[in-house]
Specification:
By secondary structure, this protein is α/β, with parallel strands linked by helices. The protein has helices at 5-17, 20-28, 33-61, 64-69, 75-82, 86-98, 114-120, 123-138, 142-147, 154-158, 169-193, 211-219, 231-243, 278-291, 311-325, 333-342; strands at residues 73-74, 102-105, 109-112, 201-205, 224-229, 248-252, 266-270, 297-302, 347-351, 360-365. The protein has 16 helices and 10 strands.
Length: 366
């Protein structure tokens, strides 16, 4: 195939950027020096990213960030909290300060940094940082993971539901708790982008412990709510809703084996579709279409591939995470829309969200 003009430009660009002489010149020349430094830092971050993530893991699991959130501390106080000698504590807190998780203060004290404050304000992120120990075990040899086509490792054993299996209550509690802590951020993006209050009854399919429905109830208190999930998960949700005096019909079943309950004029799939390969994803969409009346609405909220400004989250992070899980893949909105039409929806389209790295939204009409 003959080279296009863009092919020739790319070849020229890459030769220039990869030339050591040009790199030295760019680092010295005042106008290109800031760009050269940013690119050098980005290149270094590619090799050091795992170390940064492990520093964050240590800060979260040791209680360092929570202690700093209470106010500036000296090294002796922090050493007691993290259960390290002062040399180890100093190394950890200096690493945290370099990542802006902590911040150095006068008189050899340390305080919470801006990134640490943001992290503590997003409990779903801290839960995922802890959970990533499973993912990193599978990614110790990424080529082996890619060769076997995914699954078969530590992370796959954590998500038995992805293949339609009914997990025991302990497993259900583990993964439902993890999903619940991170679901609130996704709910905000979806509900800011679509006004659910215009509907009569919403059913959240694969709703877990009901975090999305709690957010819906706060936004649209007059909306009737229902949840459908595996029986062990639905039992936990039912008990939680009853304890909080929230009126939700929690129904147990499998969307692969059982018909979805009728009666909702809007159904939500929040971080569900990307957990499944194309054939089961299409089966889920067909089940949703069968449960909706003509004119009913489907909301699909999840991180999507090839979203502008969120490419790393889609194809890089979730591309590897879902591979290790052994089921599903991140899809661009256009592929999700095509699946919706194949499932029998009359119309489907993308809705913009404020933060696509957390979730994008597709709205389909039956």
């Amino acid at each position: 195939m003959p080279q296009t003009l863009h092919d020739r430009y790319r070849h020229w660009r890459n030769r220039l950027i990869g030339d050591p002489g040009f790199q030295r010149w760019a680092a010295r020349f005042p106008l290109t020096r800031p760009i050269a430094r940013r690119r050098a830092q980005a290149l270094f971050d590619l090799s050091a990213g795992f170390i940064y993530s492990q520093i964050a893991y240590a800060c979260v699991t040791s209680g360092l960030l929570e202690r700093l959130a209470a106010g500036p501390c000296d090294l002796a106080q922090l050493s007691h909290t993290v259960k390290l000698d002062q040399a180890g504590t100093l190394r950890l807190v200096r690493a945290a300060a370099a990542l802006k998780l902590a911040e150095a203060c006068p008189n050899e004290r340390f305080a919470l940094g801006v990134e640490g404050a943001a992290l503590l304000g997003a409990p779903g992120v801290t839960a995922m940082i802890t959970h990533h120990a499973l993912l990193y075990a599978d990614l110790a040899d990424p080529m082996s993971l890619l060769r076997r086509g995914g699954g078969g490792g530590t992370l796959a054993g954590y998500w038995p539901y992805a293949g339609g299996e009914a997990p025991d209550p302990v497993a259900a509690a583990a993964y439902s708790g993890l999903m619940s802590t991170s679901q609130a951020m996704v709910a905000t993006q979806v509900l800011d982008a679509y006004p659910v209050g215009r509907h009569r009854r919403l059913m959240d399919v694969g709703g877990g412990q009901g975090t999305f429905l709690r957010a819906v109830a706060a936004r649209a208190p007059r909306l009737d709510l229902a949840l459908f999930d595996l029986p062990a998960v639905a039992d936990r949700a039912r008990a939680a809703f009853a304890a909080e005096a929230i009126a939700v019909d929690a129904v147990g079943g499998s969307f692969f084996a059982d018909p979805l309950p009728q009666g909702a004029d809007i159904i939500s799939l929040i971080r569900i579709l990307h957990d499944h390969d194309d054939e089961p994803a299409l089966a889920i969409l067909k089940a949703v279409r069968a449960a909706l009346p003509t004119g009913g609405t489907l909301l699909i909220g999840e991180p999507m591939a090839r979203e502008r400004g969120a490419e790393r989250v889609g194809d890089a992070y979730f591309g590897c995470y879902l591979l290790a899980m052994g089921s599903g893949r991140p899809r661009p909105a256009a592929e999700i829309i095509a699946l919706c039409r194949e499932a029998g929806f009359a119309h489907a389209g993308r809705r913009s969200t404020h933060m696509p790295m957390i979730a994008s939204l597709v709205v389909a009409r039956a």
